[in-house]
Amino acid sequence: MQLSVIQRILGILLMIFSFTMLPPMLVSILYADGALTPFFYAFAVTLITGMLFWLPVQAHHKDLRLRDGFVIVILFWSVLGLFGALPFYLSDRLQMPLIDAIFESISGLTTTGATVLSGIDYLPKSILFYRQQLQWLGGMGIIVLAVAIMPMLGIGGMQMYRAETPGPVKDTKLTPRITETAKALWYIYLTLTVVCALSYWGAGMDLFDAITHSFSTVAIGGYSTHDASMGYFMDQPMVEVVAIIFMFISGINFSLHFTAWHHRSLGNYLLDSEFKAYVTILLLVAVVTTTYLYHQGVFESTGQTIINSLFQTVSIGTTTGFTTHSYHLWPGFLPVLLLFTSFIGGCAGSTGGGMKVIRFVLLLKQGRREVMRVIHPNAVIPIKLGNKAIPNRVLDAVWGFFAAYVALFSFMLLLLMFDGMDQITAFSAVAACMNNLGPGLGEVGSNYADISDSAKGILSAAMLLGRLEIFTLLVLFTPAFWRS
C-alpha cells in the first residue's frame, strides 16, 4: 500500500472539489439570497485541508496499483460526503444537525435523492443549486472526471477508473487510452445535461429550475427545488414528457451512447441484450401499472393515467426518484411492484442505481440453465449475451454480488428494525438507499427527517454501498487486501 501516493491524490481531489463551491457562491451573489458565507467557509476549509494533505507528499510520483485505486475511491467518496456536508451544516437558514447534513450530502453525491429537508421551496437559491450540483457531480462520478485530468498531474488513472466504474465487466474501454475514455463519457454527460436543460426550459420551466432539474435528471438523482418534486409542474405536461425521455436515456449504458455518436447510427442499441431487457422491463411494469390504476379509477382521464404510470415507472425503475404523485399511497400492490423494479435499476455503465439490468439478465439465464440441467444433467449449456458466451469468471462475480447484496440488505434491515423502525418502512428505506432510489414507503415515503440518527447513519452507509457496488467497499474488510 503506497500511503504517500494515496495521501497526495486525496489532497489533489479535495482541492479540486473545493472549487465546486464557487458556482453556488455565484448563484448566491446573483440572487442576493444571503447564503454566501457557508459556501465561502466550506470552500476555504476544503481547499486548505486538501493542501495540507498534498504539500508534505507532493514529490511522491509513483504509478498507482489496483489496491491504491480502491482505497482512493472509497476514501474520496466518504471524505467527500463529510466535506460536502459543510454548507448544509454551516447554513443559518437550515440549522441542520451534523448527521442530517452528512446524510443530505451523501444522498446527493450518491444520486440517491433521499432528503431530510422540508420547505424546500423557501430555501435560498444557492442551497437549492448546490443540492442539485452534488447529484450532477456524483452521477458520472467525480473520480472519472479526475481521471481525465490526472495525466496532466502525473497520475495514472486506470486503477481508479476500474474501482469507480459500475457493472460486472469493468475492463472495457471506449477508446485506447483511459483518459480519452473518461473525457468521452463526460462530453456525452455534459451534452445530455445541456440538451435536457434546454428541453425543460422549452417545456415551461424557468431557467433556474430547468438547469437544476437537468442536473438531477441526467444524474438519475431525484432531488428537486420543490417539495412537490415534479408534481410542482403538473400544469405543464411537457415537463413530464421531457423528464421521461431523459431519465430513460440516462439509464442506458453510456458506452452505447458513445458508439451511436461515434458511428452516427442507432443500430447498436437494438443489438444490445441489456438495452432490450431494459426496455422490456420498463414497458411491462408500465403496462401493469397503467392497467391497475385505470381499473381503480385513481385518475380522472385515461391520458392522466398513462402519463403518470409511465413517469413513475421510468422514475422508480431507473432509480431517479422523481415523483408527480405520492406513489407510496397508490392502491394495492403497485408501490411494492415499483419498489421491486428499483432493485433491477438502470443498465451497467449508466448513472442509474440498483443491481443493474445486465446482472438481472444473467441471473435469469443462469436460473434457466439450472432448470435445463435438471432435465439434461450432462448437457453443456453456455450462457450467452447476443452471440457471445459469458466467461464463468463474470458469472461467478454476478452470483457473488447477488449473495453479498442480499446478506448486507438483510443485515441493515434487521438493524433498522432493532432501532425501532416498522417492517415496511425499514425494508423500503434500505431498498431505496441501497438502490440509490430515494423515496421509500411508510414513514420514508416523503422524506427521512423523522427517523433516528442511528438509522440515518446506517442508511448513509447503504447509499455508499450501492454507489460503490458493494465489493469496492467490502474489499477493505478482506484481510488479503491488506497483505503486501
Outline of the structure:
The chain starts with a helix and ends with a helix. The chain contains 23 helices and two strands.
Could you list some keywords that capture this structure?
single chain; 484 residues; mainly alpha; two-stranded antiparallel sheet; 23 helices; 2 strands; 1% strand; globular
What can you tell me about this protein's structure?
There is one protein chain. The chain has 23 helices and two strands. By secondary structure, the chain is mainly alpha-helical. It has helices at residues 3-18, 22-31, 36-54, 66-84, 86-90, 98-109, 125-140, 142-149, 158-164, 178-203, 207-218, 237-250, 254-263, 267-271, 273-296, 302-317, 334-344, 357-375, 392-418, 423-434, 453-467, 471-474, 479-482; strands spanning 384-385, 388-389. It has a two-stranded antiparallel ribbon with strand order 1-2.
Helices and strands, in order, run as: HHHHHHHHHHHHHHHHHHEEHHHHH
Strand order of the largest sheet: 1-2
Distance between the termini: 7 Å
Instruction: Note poorly predicted spans.
Output: 152-161
Q: Tally of extended strands?
A: 2
**Cα radius of gyration in angstroms:** 22 Å
Which word captures the global form?
globular
Fraction of residues in β-strands: under 5%
Mean pLDDT: 87
Helix proportion: 55-70%
Q: How many DSSP helices?
A: 23
Structural class: mainly alpha
Question: How can the largest sheet be summarized?
Answer: 2 strands, antiparallel
What is the strand and helix layout of this fold?
Elements: H1 3-18, H2 22-31, H3 36-54, H4 66-84, H5 86-90, H6 98-109, H7 125-140, H8 142-149, H9 158-164, H10 178-203, H11 207-218, H12 237-250, H13 254-263, H14 267-271, H15 273-296, H16 302-317, H17 334-344, H18 357-375, E1 384-385, E2 388-389, H19 392-418, H20 423-434, H21 453-467, H22 471-474, H23 479-482
Antiparallel strand pairs: 1-2
Helix pairs in contact: 1-3, 1-4, 2-3, 2-7, 4-6, 4-9, 6-7, 6-21, 7-8, 7-11, 8-10, 10-11, 10-12, 10-13, 12-16, 15-16, 15-17, 16-17, 19-20, 19-21, 20-21
